[in-house]
């Protein structure tokens, strides 16, 4: 019985530590929105490494975004694009940190972060991109106002009156 109790305690500790570690990596797994007069706003906390990661959706399917103001477009790993069933468009040569590569254009019917929703967003399907994180580049961010201060990034979308 003592062995089972220790085993259960170890299993629970592993589960809780895994959740704690994921919250440290991505403190914005379910970003909350604030509504004001003619705007919706999402505040994101930076990770321990200073990055802004956030849970969101592409075409109604859950993804993790890594906000990247240095990226010209939203960039989606090729494997994830396949899982999201994104249409593969024309090839385009891109410059990455690892040199030149051929990506493919695509369009996202919807991109959602909290209650901020963007429609018909230009994106790239990027071969050789590891992981499941979508780079949220300027093709999406240019449609929002954003400010960063003290480890918090505020994204604001104006809403029609």
TrEMBL record:
Keyword Disulfide bond set for record: no
InterPro entries listed in its UniProt record: Aspartic_peptidase_AS, Clan_AA_Asp_peptidase_C, Peptidase_aspartic_dom_sf, Retropepsin-like_bacterial
CDD domains linked: retropepsin_like_bacteria (cd05483)
Top enzyme category: hydrolase
One Pfam short name: gag-asp_proteas
Keyword Protease: yes
Annotated protein name in UniProt: TIGR02281 family clan AA aspartic protease
Organism: Pseudomonas xionganensis
Top-level taxonomy: Bacteria, Pseudomonadati, Pseudomonadota, Gammaproteobacteria, Pseudomonadales
